[in-house]
Design brief:
Serine Threonine Protein Phosphatase 5, Tetratricopeptide repeat, 5-stranded mixed beta sheet, 3 domains, alpha/beta, 58% helix, 14 helices, Glutaredoxin
């Protein structure tokens, strides 16, 4: 990756307009196939809307045509807002290539609006560089090169402070090095509204599991017990939990899948539930998750 700083704006144009339910297809869906389009759902009686509107317009105009804004009064045009599930305003939806790409609610400060807009401009050099950096960081993380992964994730967070994927990845780097406290602090950077994101929740789950991590001698004793009593599912399950707590997701998955291979409904689905928790903790791109899901599907549909 070369540079993930903001690029220079392009040519100015008619960047802001009022929209209606009738003009939505042309003003938003079709227009977003050229450049990203933000839709600001507002109403005259909404106080926060009056705070957000001018700031949103200012930041959009600064982009000089790289992104456009359509303002929709939901009192006069409730149709599209209803279809998109808007429950409170202000609500801003970003459309790209004819489809919703992201959204936020509430009157965000100017800095966060800038970050939101830079994130949805995926067709720009910055957007491409950020995605490339995240992919490279993920490869380093899976290869065990936590320092290089952290450097790349950190660069993305610096350029896009609310990039959830990069924040979660950076936290995983710290967790992999045994610093659960710092990993938790990194996750807090995402803000309260992002804490329910699957990427953030997955790392939180992994952090929680480390609280019960066994010592080396305890883990070795469990391994010996399972080796000497291979048909004991309860012991094997206990070992899988211990391995998960130590971050050994692949080994833990192997033991859980062995239980499931012999008894899919063991202890009312206890092993399967634990395996799904492992997938969350390991993350969707982890080899343990990818291989584990494949093997679980084979068992379920054999």
């Amino acid at each position: 990756m070369t540079d993930i700083s903001l690029g220079a704006p392009g040519a100015a144009g008619n960047n802001i307009k009022d929209g209606t339910d009738q003009t939505f297809m042309a003003d938003v869906v079709e227009a977003s196939k050229e450049v990203p389009v933000l839709v600001d759902f507002w109403a005259p009686w909404c106080g926060p809307c009056k705070s957000l509107g001018p700031v949103l317009e200012k930041v959009v105009n600064e982009q000089q045509g790289k992104v456009k804004l359509v303002k929709v009064n939901i009192d006069e045009n409730p149709g599209i807002a209803g279809q998109l599930g808007v429950r409170s305003i202000p609500a801003v939806f970003a459309f790209d290539q004819g489809r919703p790409a992201d959204a936020f609610q509430g009157a965000l400060p100017e800095g966060q609006i800038r970050e939101f807009i830079s994130k949805i401009m995926g067709g720009t050099d910055q957007g491409q560089q950020i995605q490339q950096a995240i992919e490279q960081a993920g490869q380093h993380l899976q290869a065990g090169d936590h320092a290089q992964a952290a450097q790349l994730y950190g660069a993305v967070v610096e350029a896009d402070p609310q990039n959830v994927e990069a924040i979660a990845g950076l936290a995983r780097c710290y967790l992999a090095n045994g610093d659960a406290e710092r990993a938790s602090q990194i996750l807090d950077m995402a803000g309260p509204e992002k804490q329910s994101d699957p990427a953030i929740k997955g790392v939180r789950t992994a952090i929680e599991l480390t609280a019960d991590a066994p010592k080396d001698d305890e883990l070795d004793a469990l391994i010996d017990k399972v080796t000497n009593d291979r048909s004991n599912h309860a012991l094997r399950f206990e070992l899988a939990e211990a391995l998960m707590a130590r971050g050994k997701h692949k080994e833990a998955a192997d033991h859980l899948l062995r239980i499931l291979a012999e008894d899919m409904d063991w202890e009312e689905g206890k092993a399967k539930a634990k395996l799904l928790e492992l997938f969350e903790a390991a993350g969707p791109k982890s080899p343990a998750t990818i291989e584990g899901r494949r093997r679980l599907s084979s068992l379920m549909f054999a």
